[in-house]
Amino acid sequence: MKHFFLLSLFISGISCNLLAQKQPFKPVSFPDTYNQLLDVIYTQVNGWDGRMDLYFNTKSATPTPIVINIHGGGWNHGEKESQSGFGSFFKNGYAVANVEYRLVAVAPAPAAIEDVRCALIYLYNNANALNIDTNKIVIMGGSSGGHLALMAGLLGNDKPFDTNCTYDGDIKVAAIIDKYGVSNLLPLTAWKSAKNWLGINHTNKKFIESVSPLYHVSKTSPPTFIVHGNEDPIVPYSQSEDLYKKLKDFNITTEFLTIPGGKHGKFSSEENALLSKRMWLFLKALDL
After folding, report:
1. Which PANTHER family does the UniProt entry name for this protein (predicted)?
2. Each residue of 31-48: pLDDT tens digit?
């Protein structure tokens, strides 16, 4: 009986831990004038469903801008439901597309890039129903999500990764918001997350360049806002320095906000307030 009681306690402890791990994320708060569509399937690949959550205003007299948000997690973990801080975008009349993508356990590179491109194409193909302005698409992400936002935006009308989705017209985002994202995977191939995501191609220089945003910067690249802490222990600060320099070399409208002493995100409330202020000044200057 004693052993059974102890075993019951052990099992109960496991159950409590599992329940604690599965606590739901805080739902997104959105204005009364908005519609919400959760888990919209934007692509299907080999039995995997790519899903996004959409918050959009069909009552607006004119099509609205939209931000595509991409979560981080080293290409190996993370979920769209962890993202909920869209209040400033709603306040400024934006629709929101909160996107998930294939993690490395499902498929290695370039799968995640293909997915975010499909998410972008889905919005183009459904712009009328969502009442969004495809000339005012902003794409945003942090860490590996920043890398994917950069890739989706910098590719523009170049479509080598648009293998699962099609759009006959031109594709161009209005701006990119890159939060401490990876811009060049070549010097990071020993980093476990990057090596795993690159998979069998982790020594293939040409392939690595093809999935690195730095090598897609051109004179037609979208305006890009960059933020990075200069003491980031995960994504080197130099990744953003190099990206900023190349954007400037091509005369692309760009701003680089350094958070002094900043780590990998997790900025203070004051630093986040500064980030929001500078980001909105950047977007407003672009009429976005």
Report:
1. AB HYDROLASE SUPERFAMILY PROTEIN C4A8.06C
2. 999 999 999 999 999 999
